[in-house]
Specification:
This protein is mainly alpha-helical. The protein has 4 domains: about 1-135, no CATH class; about 140-205, no CATH class; about 210-285, Alpha Horseshoe (Serine Threonine Protein Phosphatase 5, Tetratricopeptide repeat); about 300-380. Helix content is about 70%, strand content about 5%. It has a 4-stranded mixed β-sheet. α3 runs antiparallel to α4 (about 115-135) and α15 (about 320-330) runs antiparallel to α16 (about 335-350). The longest helix is centred in the N-terminal third of the chain and has 28 residues, at about 30-60.
């Protein structure tokens, strides 16, 4: 990743260049044209993001720009802005792109350009910026148009307006996607289909979203905690995460802080403390965090909880360890058939030795049952290691 320091730092990820080159190639089918298109896209995206960033800096916020796969992002730190200022920060990105379009179009219409490469640059600049400005103002999150609609509706309906904006964006995205698929413009149709799924995900998070989740200071604390964890400064990270939890009490930042704190406790083998942290937010967990809760439930001998999340956890984390923990929990609870089923599942997922696993004391309550005895006879010499 390339980084340019300054009052507004700029970072450019390698995938940005690849996607820009792909767009240029689709447009021109020539190497030179593709490289010229990369330059135009780079300047255009940067121009757009500076529209956001410079406005944010004018309102006493810190800003940095990152150019990634499908465009740019302006990240901001500082006090939460009033809604009208937030509106201007968001609006000035598309406005900057529109001004770039007007400038390029004025040159295209009023200046005779004999050089074919320069002619292409001017023409591609006004076409690309007009297209992206219009697309970006569509009221679908996470596009700027979606953010602008969210700000307006929040001003009218309060915090509930954010949800209305998300739902509106979903309807608009579906309608646009279907329209472009009917018109056989599959790339744009697919883009809005992706945005539809992103909006659905935003709507899911909205259910636990609170006003304090917008607090830039608390967001910064989370980032500082993550940096401290990467550096092995767990004590520093704990302090920052506890601060976030105390000041939020609920919401996304609370959930993130709780998950990270539980992971720290897990690394310190404070299994009880980690489990008590995750248990109240278990319905919001997925992926690695759900796997952590699963492991902690087993370590704290809460076998009913292990079984409660067994299937969901295996769907997120299909591994031999997950299946084995499920089998052990069923064994303790004297349920031979599911215990055997999960043991066989663990074997399919790469369990080193079924015989060794089956000898664990958790299976003692079902060891003499006919079904388990039959299972043991069938696997007494079974291993996944090479003979």
């Amino acid at each position: 990743m390339i980084t340019f320091p300054g009052k507004i730092p700029i970072s450019i990820r390698p995938l940005f260049w690849l996607i820009a080159f792909f767009i240029g190639w689709v447009w021109t089918l020539t190497l030179v044209g593709s490289l010229l298109a990369v330059g135009v896209i780079f300047i255009s995206v940067l121009f757009h993001e500076f529209g956001h960033a410079l406005t944010a800096v004018a309102f006493k916020q810190k800003a940095r720009i990152e150019l990634a796969a499908f465009g740019g992002f302006t990240y901001r730190e500082g006090e939460k802005l009033k809604l009208y200022k937030e509106f201007l920060v968001v609006l000035n990105g598309p406005l900057a792109g529109f001004l770039l379009f007007l400038g390029a179009y004025a040159i295209f219409r009023n200046v005779t350009i004999s050089n074919p490469y320069l002619f292409f640059v001017v023409r591609f600049t006004f076409v690309a910026n007009l297209f992206w400005t219009i697309m970006n103002l569509v009221p679908v999150l996470p596009l700027d148009g979606g953010h602008l609609l969210s700000i307006v509706l929040e001003a009218i309906f309060g915090f509930r307006g954010v949800k209305i904006a998300i739902i509106t964006g979903i309807v608009v995205a579906i309608a646009i996607s279907i329209t472009f698929f009917i018109l056989k413009m599959y790339l744009i149709g697919a883009l809005f289909l992706i945005l539809t799924f992103e909006s659905f995900r935003s709507l899911r998070y909205y259910k636990i979203f609170t006003e304090k989740d917008r607090d830039n200071t608390l967001q910064q604390r989370i980032k500082e905690a993550e940096l401290a964890i990467d550096r092995g400064q767990h004590l520093v990270a704990e302090g920052k995460l506890q601060e976030v939890r105390e000041k939020t009490q609920e919401g996304i930042l609370y959930t993130v802080a709780t998950q990270q704190l539980a992971a720290i406790y897990r690394s310190q083998e404070k299994f009880k403390e980690a489990y008590e942290l995750l248990l109240p937010i278990r319905k919001t967990l997925s992926g690695e965090n759900l796997a952590l809760l699963h492991f902690l439930a087993y370590m704290n001998e809460d076998y009913k909880m292990v079984i409660e999340i067994a299937n969901r956890c295996f769907q997120d984390n299909p591994s031999a360890d997950t299946a084995l923990i499920n089998a052990l929990a069923y064994g303790v609870l004297k349920k031979a058939e599911p215990a055997i089923g999960w043991l066989e599942c663990a074997a399919r997922e790469g369990l080193t030795s079924v015989k060794e696993a089956a000898s664990r004391e958790e299976f003692d309550p079902i060891r003499e049952m006919p079904s388990f005895q039959s299972f043991l006879k069938g696997h007494s010499d079974y291993t996944n290691s090479e003979n």
